[in-house]
Structure formats: C-alpha cells, structure tokens
Amino acid sequence: MKFNQIYFDAVWADLNEATTYPSRRPTLAHYTSIATLERIVRSGELWLAHPMLMNDHQEMRWGMVEGQKRLLASEEIASACASADKHQLLLAAFNKHYDQFATADAFDVYVGCFCEHDPSDHDGLLSMWRGYGANGGGAAIVFDTSKLIHDDESPLVLAPVVYGTDQQRLNWIETKISELARLIKTHNPPKLELDRAAWHFFNRLKYFALFSKHCGFREEREWRVVYMQDRDPKREYHSRFTYLTNEAGIEPRMKLQVGSDLKGAEPITLSSLVTRILLGPRAGALLSLMATRRMMEQLGEPQLAARVLSSSTPFRG
Predict the structure, then answer these.
(1) pLDDT for 17-49, tens place per residue?
(2) How buried is 292 (Cβ within 10 angstroms: 0-12 exposed, 13-18 middle, 19+ buried)?
(3) Is there a contact between 24 and 150 (Cβ–Cβ < 8 Å)?
(4) Rounded to the nearest 5 degrees, what angle is found at the Cα of 272, between the Cα atoms of 268 and 273?
C-alpha cells in the first residue's frame, strides 16, 4: 500500500462515521426571525453565511492558524523527515495549500447552522430562542434529513460540530502532527508522496476548523452544512454566490435552492423536508399563530400551514 493511502486512512481514522451523516440522519432545527422564515418560504432558498461573520470569533481561522503554526514549529516533523530537503518540501507543500485557501478559497466557504432537534419536542430550546430566534420572537424551522440522498461528490458537507476546550483542540492538532511524523519516520516516503501527505493534513485540518467549536457552545448541539469550494472544481455552485446588505455593511452569502440543490429519492420541496415550524415563546400567541398559518397559505404552502405550532415555554423575554 502506498504511503499516501496509509496516511489518508490514518488522518481520518478518528472521524467516527457512525456519529455523522449519512449514518445518522437527525432532525435539525434552524432558529431564525419571522422575517427570515417568510423569505425562506417565499423564495424556497436557504442562505448560507461566511463562518468569519458568526458569533464565535474563533470560527475557522483559529484552527487553521494554530495548525499551521504548530506544524511549522514541530521538531517531531523535522526529525522524522531526516533531511532538510524533505522537511522543507513538506512545509512548502503545506504552505502552498494554506496560502491558496487563505488568499482565495476561504472567501467562498459558506456555512448553514442547525440545532439537533428531538422530533417529539414542540417547544424548542430556550438558549437557542434567545441566541438565534429573535429572543423568543422568531421561529424554528424543523427539517428531516432522512429525506435527503447522500452524494459523496457534492461540495456540500453535512456533519455535527465537535466541542472542546481550547487545550483539547490544541491537543488534537498536536496528535495529528505526531501521527504524521510517526508515519513519515516508519515509511520514509519519497518526496513526491510528501506533497500529497501535506494535502491530506491540510484538508483534515480544514475540516476540523470548520466542524469544531469551543465547549461553551455545546448546548447548541450544532450541525452544519458547509460548502467547500475545492470540492466544486467545475464551479457548478458559483451562480449561488450572492451578498447581503444590512446595518453592518455588506457580507458575502450563498443561496441554496431547496428544489434543485438538495437531492432526495423523491423531488425535494420545503413541504417534503420541513416537519414543523415552531413559533417562539414570544411569538406564539393565538393571533401570531393564525397569522403565520395564513402566511404559509398565501405563500402557496398549505401543507406547512398545518405544521405551524407555538412553543409553550413560559418565556417573556
């Protein structure tokens, strides 16, 4: 077996497929405002945001920066390479991929955030209402991922977020670097295969950066759908790139069309994918409930109208 296959298997070995999609197909809730709910139903679009604009200031950048810093300074890697030429080739290859990402590809990474939802829960999580559901005045759109068909070639990756302290996440990076050093020392790969090993390490680090967060956010039970541009070599999704203007200025966005960008055994529509719409504790009065159902009717989604429910959580905000 070639070194690159050995290393590829090793670098991804800690990713437990049994805990992620498509082995797991959870019910997911997207907490948002009533205005955004209306826009989603009216357009049939889900808008993804840039991770650097989210409420966790460590998003994406922290994991990438710490990974690069520790790889470049690793004495284990230098010793394992045995020669200065091989060591410099490995680091140069990694920096090439890192620089391409940092200066170009990272601009068009987009993330949609969801909360794992108990199908029997008709109230939602108070912390999520406060943080993302207009302080209880918004809505939670509940999606059934079992309706989707998994596509290994898709640039859209759906997976749960892994939580840890800063030190735990740094330990993960150091473990991956030690693993690379051990395999280089054991197999003494030719220079050409070191270039590919750098690519595998970079990709695993990027996945880690995008799907891990500080443990302070763990009660969100977050799942993410992430668009990765390097998985879209034909640029089939570039027409979905757009922008949003708001009080903060202008931000890059990506819009996914539910009916064409998401695949299922049967044609995917909002009414086939959404199991219910929960109104938040401050939006769940009878008048709001009836008005939201009317909204669904007038937007041409009578099936969704019947699925609008009110949270019974006694929260005034």
Answers:
(1) 999 999 999 999 999 999 999 999 999 999 999
(2) buried
(3) no
(4) 80
